[in-house]
Design a protein that fits this description.
The complex is a heterodimer of chains A (about 250) and B (about 230).
Chain A lengths: L1 H12 L2 H26 L10 H6 L1 H22 L1 H8 L3 H35 L11 H26 L2 H18 L4 H7 L3 H4 L20 H25 L3
Chain B lengths: L1 E10 L2 E11 L4 E5 L6 H8 L7 E6 L14 E4 L11 H11 L5 H9 L15 H13 L5 E5 L7 H16 L3 E5 L3 H7 L2 E6 L2 E7 H5 L5 H11 L2
Parallel strand pairs in B: 3-7, 3-8, 5-6, 6-7
Antiparallel strand pairs in B: 1-2, 1-4, 8-9
The chains are: A mainly alpha (about 250), B alpha/beta (about 230).
Chain lengths: ~250, ~230
């Protein structure tokens, strides 16, 4: 299995799209966090002020790159025909798929371990005197949550793309979901009741991007339940992708 | 040795491969012939487990391809059309293939030199000519030094020098005792390279014989082939 994972890692590191997607996200996510931090510093005084809200706000943009990376990890093989080389070298499809999941997880873990602390410290620099430190309540949880959030987004994208066997199809579903999800869905109570269970929305509690008890941006569940809901979506997408890969002709 | 037993593949109401049974033996080049759309490529994809047969089975040296953990040591395959990521170099394409089957990295350089791609190996394959793409496909097939080779239209896109090169390569590989199964629609080239023939038309087996037997007194393989195909229309 390690040999198959190594091969998948080689595939990831030898195409330019990996750098195009991850490097801008690595630079821009902390940069935007800095400006979000300085913007929110001036709103201090409101009793609802949460210094962790501006901290991980920019991950809602950074996640788009992670989703595209997850999509391309599978979708590019279908669009280029290299899936046939892949399945000729590793004909056991479950093993092939699991190796890909492991390599993508490891890549995004590495990305998140760099990006999440950088984003945190950039935001705190922007917050200036209102900043929080690593030891403050909720900070460690939010940072671990952010790493998990990014990994789950990448795997959700991977699974969905394997189900649809198309990068375009997966992006058509994912980008509106991730881009627009937070924007307007909470405004109508009936929609909010359902929309809060969408994968990215569920992951936002642990990132402090939701407001407890708020009628619009509040959630009916806690941070870890939110990660659990997100993980459930991801597992369903991954299993769906596996099922399609095993059943369909390559 | 490749054993195909009652192999059938249907896509909806179309039957691409229809109850094929034949055996490909080691020690000589076996050509796989048939007009366009006869089911040659589908048969090869079925051999590699890329497509699932509707019925029947393929055994390569006694095993189904898709059960093998490291199949590149047993079977080397070259498929029709592009099967590389255009943004990846030939070297890295062969490297991940080698890694997935625990083939040592030095072998990548060896096969690149064997097919004459050593100088272009670091370039992205999207910029390759058809002939270079074919050479890369042959390099990938040779990577695991396998006793069985399946090559789908390897002569396509090669220049005259390349055609002579592959003719000698295939004969050498067969002379080493390997099973060499090559699809083609170039009759003149096939007559020079192969000793055995498997001919299909509309997914059905039309002939499984030696080149000499099929040619008989037709004059050329081309004439014999066209007569055989015509007789079944």
């Amino acid at each position: 299995m390690t040999s198959t994972i190594l091969a998948e890692w080689t595939k990831i590191r030898t195409v330019r799209s990996t750098v195009w997607t991850l490097l801008p996200a690595l630079v821009l996510t902390p940069l935007i966090a800095y400006y979000a931090g300085s913007g929110f510093a001036s709103s201090y005084g409101s009793d609802r002020f949460d210094p962790l809200f501006p901290t991980f706000y920019s991950l809602t943009l950074g996640q788009l790159a992670i989703a595209v990376f997850g999509v391309l990890a599978v979708g590019a093989e279908h669009s280029t025909g290299s899936i046939r080389s892949g399945l000729t070298a590793v004909p056991r499809r479950g093993r092939f798929y699991l190796a890909k999941v492991c390599a993508v997880t490891a890549t995004i873990l590495g990305f998140a371990v760099l990006t999440v602390p950088a984003t945190f410290f950039a935001a705190q620099a922007g917050l200036g005197p209102k900043r929080v430190g690593l030891g403050d309540p909720g900070v460690a949880q939010a940072m671990i949550g952010a790493v998990l959030y990014l990994i789950l987004i990448s795997l959700l994208a991977l699974g969905l793309t394997a189900m649809l066997r198309s990068s375009i199809g997966a992006l058509v579903i994912l980008l509106p979901l991730l881009f627009l999800g937070g924007a307007g869905l909470g405004n109508i109570p009936q929609i909010r009741a359902v929309a809060q269970y969408l994968p990215d929305q569920a992951g936002m509690v642990i990132l402090h991007l939701t407001l407890p008890d708020d009628p619009q941006f509040g959630r009916d569940y806690g941070p870890w339940t939110g990660i659990g809901i997100m993980a459930l979506w991801t597992v369903v997408a991954l299993l769906g992708g596996l099922l399609i890969l095993r059943r369909r002709d390559a | 040795m490749i054993d195909i037993r009652h192999l059938t593949k249907r896509y909806g109401r179309t039957t691409a491969v229809d109850d094929l049974t034949f055996t490909v033996r080691p020690g000589h080049v076996t050509a796989f012939l048939g007009p366009n759309g006869a089911g040659k490529s589908t048969t090869m994809r079925l051999m590699l487990g890329l497509d699932r047969p509707t019925a029947g089975e393929v055994r390569i040296d006694g095993k189904a391809y898709q059960d093998d953990r490291r199949p590149l040591h047993q079977v080397g395959a070259m498929l029709e059309g592009r099967s590389t990521h255009p943004g990846r170099s030939a070297y890295h394409h062969l490297l991940w293939m080698a890694q997935s089957n625990r083939i040592p990295r030095v072998r990548v350089q060896q096969v690149l030199e064997m097919v004459g791609l050593a100088d272009a190996a670091r370039r992205r394959t999207g910029g390759y000519s058809l002939g270079m793409t074919q050479r890369l496909g042959i390099a990938a097939a040779l990577l695991g030094d396998p006793p069985v080779l399946l090559l789908d239209e390897p002569v396509n896109g090669l220049d005259p020098e390349g055609i002579v090169w592959i003719r000698h390569l295939l004969k050498d590989l067969a002379a080493q005792g390997r099973t060499v199964f090559v699809s083609s629609h170039f009759m003149a080239e096939t007559a020079l390279t192969a000793q055995h023939l498997v001919v299909i038309g509309r997914g059905r087996l039309l002939a499984d014989t030696t080149v000499d037997d099929l040619v008989g007194d037709s004059g050329s393989l081309e004439d014999a082939f066209i007569r055989l195909i015509g007789a079944t229309r």
